[in-house]
Write a structure and sequence with these properties.
By secondary structure, the chain is mostly helical. The chain has two helices and no strands. The chain is elongated, with a radius of gyration of 17 Å.
Length: about 80
């Protein structure tokens, strides 16, 4: 393993944690903007319709994927700029 990849591991882990926090906040804000006040993660609540549960899951998955990809890409680009590798 190259030294640059080895040194990037802790940075990647930290960026992953930050990305997860940002994705959670983005999803919660989006869920509220769609007019839902309740917790979107209550998938076992049988009083909620299937449509709402599945919509929340799809939206959450898409939000996490987009935010994590953006954070990972930004981290890699910044590391390349700083280290030239």
């Amino acid at each position: 393993m190259k030294a640059s990849k080895f040194l990037y591991k802790p940075v990647g882990l930290a960026l992953g944690a930050v990305g997860s926090l940002l994705a959670g906040a983005a999803f919660n804000q989006t869920w509220r903007l769609l007019g839902h006040d309740e917790n979107a993660d209550a998938t076992t609540d049988l009083d909620r319709p299937w449509r709402q549960v599945l919509l929340a899951a799809a939206l959450q998955g898409a939000t996490f994927a987009v935010v994590r990809a953006a954070v990972d890409r930004s981290g890699a680009a910044t590391t390349r700029r700083l280290t030239a590798t």
